[in-house]
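Practice problem. Given the sequence and the SMILES for zinc ion, write out the predicted structure.
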Amino acid sequence: MSSWRSKRRIWDISQTLRPGLPVWPGDTDFAFDRTWKMEDGSPVNVGRMTMSTHSGTHGDAPLHYSADAPDIASVELDPYIGECLVVDATGVTGGEVNVGDLPHIESADRVLFRTFARFPHDEWDSGFTAIAAETIEWLALQGVKLIGTDAPSVDPQDSKTMAAHKAVLDHDMRILEGLVLDEVPEGRYELVALPLKVAGGDAGLCRAILRELAV
Ligand SMILES: Nc1ccccc1C(=O)C[C@H](N)C(=O)O
Ligand SMILES: [Zn+2]
Ligand SMILES: [Zn+2]
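Answer key:
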């Protein structure tokens, strides 16, 4: 008998989009409803959604932090697929992940940081841990093309300088935010996290997964 289930384990590292999803203070709430309902005699159910482009798990487009930079529909997809390193940064104090907090990194194309001991699924946590601009610079020099975090931003919530986003821009890196890494041990995985192709989009929602590497 055949099975749909792959022999390699998959971790779904996406937030579930649903009413009540915590969003950036002041940003658009996630809403979903049905425009056609089978219970009303429609042959099918059809829904609609209203949301911020930065809802839940998403990839920022360069356009989000630089006015003339590419939108999410224009960016190449290679950074969003391939081998990645998950780093446990749950022990970091002081608000941002610094170079000294990093483990020894042999080489990595993509690095994902787990900063929450327990992901805040039900409330917004303004005190999330950001990534220092120096850390991003350092990772770029190691050849890292994509940085991911379970926090809602690589910069602190009250940042006026957006230093981490600027470092990402300087090195033409890509960012994933709002990943859920609670169940994922530190180590190497295959990442697949493709942002939705929205023309003019400053970000794209992602269904993000990690898969056990082939041995
Ligand atoms: N929705 C916002 C409204 C105002 C200011 C920032 C945001 C963000 O979402 C920040 C974001 N997730 C980021 O890319 O760092
Ligand atoms: Zn964002
Ligand atoms: Zn961002």
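Check your answer against the key. The chain is about 10% helix and 30% strand.
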